[in-house]
Structure prediction request, 341 residues.
Amino acid sequence: MAETNSNDKQTTPGLAGQAGYLIEVAGRAPSVHNTQPWRFKAGEDAVELYADASRQLLDDPAGREMLVSCGAALYGLRLGIRSLGSRPEVELFPEPARRRLLARVRAGRPAPMTRQERQLLQAVPRRHTHRGPFEARPLPAGLVARLRRDATAEGATLWVIEAEAEYRRLTAILGAWSRIRDLYPASRAGVHARAETQRWTREPGRETADGVPARAFPARTGRETGRLPQRDFDLGRGWGLLPSGGPPAPVTAVLVTAGDSEEDWLRAGQALQRLLLRAASGWVFANLQTQPLQDTPVRAQLRSGLALPGSPQVLLQLGMARTTHPTARRPPGELAEPPGR
Prediction:
């Protein structure tokens, strides 16, 4: 076990007194459109994580993306409890009749944080979804292998696209999806996607505690060579402040789970946040793609076309970037689950 650090927070008799801190760490997780679709209830011996269905996207009817987002927050909650000097004990869906209650996390036996866990915690405020150009250089040596181990430790697989033929199959599948989407913008899926993008994007100068601000997306989303089809956050409004284009990302990967249940979606989210924090500790960030995976046939094509060992949950492109623009977060007081629910 690694040495302790005098700056680590100390173990306390109950978690309620640390609720604000724990919720703040958990709430820095990535979420689709920065919707932050989670709520928390802190007691003396456990913190409960709930899905906030009022923030579920219309184009996410099964709630898959919402639960992946909540899974990422669950990993942050676990990491926060580790920093208090305890090992978190997690129970997924502890009350089957209450499906909004996603997890109950208790502080288990005492154990000091390891050096690597401390690095992940320190990366929490730095981590962000990167939608601009990446630097034209490879990832640090050994990082991809560590990211794979992080995903495996959380019950998922990080499937890295390495062969050129495999990458061509990926871009062919996504290109066909993108062309169909562009041909039928008035389809129900297209209308929902546009409505949700309008709801969750913010014009320049307008800073809110949720949604995607103009400084976090480009005004144009051309189909650059070497990049996956990008979600159009700007919608022709000219709001986006990030530059577009740039060299292709060094690494393209798919986060995969063995199954495709609600439990698997939560596992995917935990794996996602863990590997993103690992990457951010080395100034590596990810462009996350979830929109194509809202289409069930696309998910099936990716699984078969890439010979994936399970269900694809998130597409990622990873690259170096030395600028950080974390998006705003709602304060812990707004994330409390109302009493009696």
User: Anything to note?
Assistant: The chain has two domains: 16-125, 143-320. The helical segments are 19-26, 64-83, 115-123, 143-153, 164-183, 188-200, 262-280, 296-305. The longest strand covers residues 101-110.
